Amino acid sequence: MSATTRLKGRKIAVHDMSLRDGMHPKRHQISVEQMKTVAVGLDQAGVPLIEVTHGDGLGGASVNYGFAAASDEDYLRAVVPLMKRAKISALLLPGIGTVDELRMAADCGIACIRVATHCTEADVSEQHIALGRKLGLDTVGFLMMSHMADPSKILEQARLMESYGANCIYTTDSAGYMLPEDVAERVDALRQGLKPETEIGFHGHHNLAMGVANSIAAVTAGASRIDCACGGMGAGAGNTPMEVFIAVAERMGIETGVDTFRIMDVAEDLVTPMMDFPVRIDRNSLTLGYAGTYSSFLLFAKRAEKQYGVPARDILVEMGRRKTVGGQEDMIEDVALDLLKNRSVAV
Amino acid sequence: MGSCGMEKVRCALIGPGNIGTDLLYKLKRSPVLEPVWMVGIDPASEGLARAREMGLKTTDQGVDGLLPHVHADGIQIAFDSTSAYVHAENARKLGELGVLMIDLTPAAIGPYCIPPVNLAEQLERGATNVNMVTCGGQATIPMVAAVSRVQAVEYGEIIATVSSKSVGPGTRKNIDEFTRTTAGAVRDVGGAKKGKAIIIINPAEPPLMMRDTVHCLTVETPDQAAITASVHRMIAEVQKYVPGYRLKNGPVFEGRRVSIFLEVEGLGDYLPKYAGNLDIMTAAAARTGEMFARRLQSPGAVAA
């Protein structure tokens, strides 16, 4: 039996990332007006879930990650009331944001909170997941850099998040490193090991051009939520491009509720014109996927290349070699300075 | 030795966990402090057994087990490395008996203490309970202060990266307390108008050494020479009690941004060397205890 027939009639929810992960290639400078326009377009196209936050989540505004054009609160207060059907989510990384920001976002009317930790450190999410659930939010546990742990470890960590109150668990390919088999193994472990009512999600990056294939592998293995970015606008080579995934899903009979032509138009007419540069696979974003490095490091490495004359690719490979995890943007300048020192020693 | 001919000041440790045990190793070497009691709550605690082997009196009855002995054993200083919740009670009970408290929990009942920045001030003010902030605070706030003592800092931000193995269950359960407390102390002790703190936990094997990045945004264009000199002076101050405290890169200047990259290697007393984050807490607490002890030995010298 082919996958096409096996997946026919499967209902899943897509979650748009262009206004949150897409903040990375925009250096967090998406305006409130742009947020509103794109979100309305996505809502009209039938996208059920849309994330709106600083690229590094609530409280991400910092020297380390960049200050956004507006505050999380300004973005949320502007976008939430405009939604007819779509629900708005916010991202929160414990260690960066706190429950104070979660309460603020809940007050703005978000319907979903996604609490993200490194894939082996789920126990820092207890207070945030518990509060999300207490506030009546759709509460998602988000295990980043999932390629760095084997499926049994991912399941162990997912169970912690489930025990704190998460009703959905994501295995997240933050580096765009995983191949379809890697995704299938992790989703399968979660599907076997979590409660039947707990949903499973997958968040991909397109650094090895695997975004769509990995997402299909996830659905095949039992995932019911898939993160995509309209126009592919996300960190690194972007996330799974929404319009491509929707078209493929339609061909396979997977029901997303999203209108294929309308979502193409949002990508082409609204999101792509916003980009400061084409978000695509190039030497540096490909290196992220190849070396297993956090996708958000891309622009920081390019900036360090400009400032110190050390190739961004060398920096990204070294970041991967040092087993850095999400949020360690501060190491990029440090690594660039180290590489510079080593080079002057060598000469 | 400054304490020449004087009797050591006797102290108690509450909480025989990793932090308490590492602190005990440090206090055993102190020329001015004598650790006498270790307080726990679990009769089977390895930490209590180890303390007994090192010649301390122990109780598994919590702080109540210590109270009847405070006067008889002349306990004047207590180090608390339990939890914020327990510390409040410990502080009240021991405070009534006149014991000075050095608080390594996030309770922060007393004022924050970062030894090279404001310990002298706390001694002058006659503080009886000081709080050691957080590991990230101990590692980074000296650098924020090194910039703010040269010129006004509008915004101070610290990023502490620590190995997964060095972060205990208490910190994990309430990680917001770390970010809030550290950010507050970046402002109140570091001297930045606004403070922000970020903690990253990295599980790499072998475990990575504690790394810290400090970003300051100055109000006016930074005076590069003066800030660089001030940073180096402050590094030397911290190295007096944490020899493995190192400036790895920087200070880097870009516009009004000043960035400092640090590495903290622990002494490896009881805790492994990579856990510089824990070592800097116990080392700062021991240093604070010693300064309190000197005040007790010769009140005239530092009293206001």
Automatic annotation (TrEMBL), chain A:
Return the annotated site residues (Transition state stabilizer).
R20
Q: Where does substrate bind?
A: R20, D21, S174, H203, Y294
Which GO biological process entries does UniProt record here?
A: L-leucine biosynthetic process
Indicate which residues the UniProt annotation says bind Mn(2+): D21, H203, H205
Q: What PROSITE patterns has UniProt attached to this entry? A: PYR_CT
Which principal EC class is assigned to this enzyme?
Answer: lyase
**Which residue numbers delimit the Pyruvate carboxyltransferase domain?**
12-264
Q: What is its EC number?
A: 4.1.3.39
Keyword annotations from UniProtKB, A to Z: Aromatic hydrocarbons catabolism, Lyase, Manganese, Metal-binding
Gene Ontology MF terms in the entry: 2-isopropylmalate synthase activity; 4-hydroxy-2-oxovalerate aldolase activity; manganese ion binding
Catalytic residues? H24 (proton acceptor)
Q: Which reaction does it catalyse?
A: (S)-4-hydroxy-2-oxopentanoate = acetaldehyde + pyruvate
- What PANTHER family does the record tag this protein with? 2-ISOPROPYLMALATE SYNTHASE 1, CHLOROPLASTIC-RELATED, HOMOCITRATE SYNTHASE-RELATED
Matching entries from HAMAP family are given as: HOA
| Family, per entry | Belongs to the 4-hydroxy-2-oxovalerate aldolase family.
The protein's name in its UniProt record: 4-hydroxy-2-oxovalerate aldolase
UniProtKB/TrEMBL annotation, chain B:
Q: Catalysed reaction per UniProt? A: acetaldehyde + NAD(+) + CoA = acetyl-CoA + NADH + H(+)
Q: Say which enzyme class the record assigns.
A: oxidoreductase
Q: Per its UniProt record, what Gene3D superfamilies does this chain match?
A: Dihydrodipicolinate Reductase, domain 2, NAD(P)-binding Rossmann-like Domain
Instruction: Give the Enzyme Commission number.
Output: 1.2.1.10
MF terms from GO for this chain are: acetaldehyde dehydrogenase (acetylating) activity; NAD binding
Task: Give UniProt keywords alphabetically.
Answer: Aromatic hydrocarbons catabolism, NAD, Oxidoreductase
> Which family does the similarity line name?
Belongs to the acetaldehyde dehydrogenase family.
UniProt protein name: Acetaldehyde dehydrogenase
